[in-house]
Here is the input.
Amino acid sequence: MRAMLLAAGALLVALPASADAQDDAARVARVLKATPLIDGHNDWPEALREREGEARWTTDLRDLGARTPAYNTDIARLRRGKVGAQFWSVWVSPTLPGKEQVEQTLEQIDLVRSLPERYPDTFALARTAADVRRAHAAGRIACLIGVEGGGQIDGSLSVLRSYAALGAGYLTLTHSLTIDWADSATDDPRHGGLTDFGRKVVLELNRLGMLVDLSHVSEKVMRDALAVTRAPVIFSHSGARALNDHPRNVADDVLRLVARNGGVVMVDYSPPYVSDAYRRWSADSLAEKARLNSPPYNGLDIGQPEKAARDYASWLATHPAPTVTLAQVADHVDHIARVAGVDHVGLGSDFDGVGETLPQGLTDVSTYPALLAELMRRGWSDAAVAKLAGGNVLRVMEAAERVKARRRETSQGAAVAASRP
Here is the structure.
């Protein structure tokens, strides 16, 4: 009898939690039915290029879950994750010569544009906020394009205009390396921010209606771009520097500038940007590899790759990687919402761009509802979650479209005035 009573008590304790989980799931479903979930950054096109080669044009993308190493993205999991729109990154290596970067960027754009042609019931190409809304209402996933690196325009505004004509929606001003006109967050600065040409790039992005993406750039470039731009900016995949002092993240005073600008910071899932402990462990891990096997002369195990591998495995056994969790990603979302406001935060996972190491609970594109449910448990309202999921990005896109229209009207007016006798 006592065992039965204990079991009944346990059941009563368990039921409310289960009911709460079901309620959260229902709330998330309602929000995402009305508002498209928009992820600011996914590297699936580059992952397909790297792993499938020429077969990327014909590989069945409906279910890649059994692949090794695993993809974070496929159509089945996008549907389970209730994704409404995705900015697909068309990244190429910043170490390539400029012309090769342009060529490979065009190939990446071509791959994204092929998705709706191959899967018309799943994907729809989108450039504007209205396009996204139409695709969502039709039950399709809107395909948006983000060019992830200013080096990919090869110093040419004509190349930038060509990307815009092909549907590119944003340009990340740098990637991991400083370029001729802007400093990267993860390279030595050469310019002290944006050069004069860099400022012209920002204004041309405004004129084209493309979003200025400040992920990857130095803090001085962030400030320079925010001072120059006429439209709201985005950070397509960054975190809160107050929680993890990585230069890829955004400091509180810059978050406040983003709020005044009307922009949005889309939170990245990459462990080194989420967790300070993981960032420090990652640096220690790389240092240990160099200590053991640093060519040509240094390293305790130099010239002995098998011994270096064994010794590094021993180091890992006593120095395991810190666990990074969904809750920590939610902490970044919470912090940005507190400092900048709930109107200025979004999601930018970096799926298929950071390998298989991802936060527990956020391992692929099916997991967005779990993060939204966590925020609901923390007290976020449905209206606030809708802004985070996609409402804020749609607002920023619409604002950029208005700036584009105004600049076109201004230039047309100036041309008419100049033509008068």
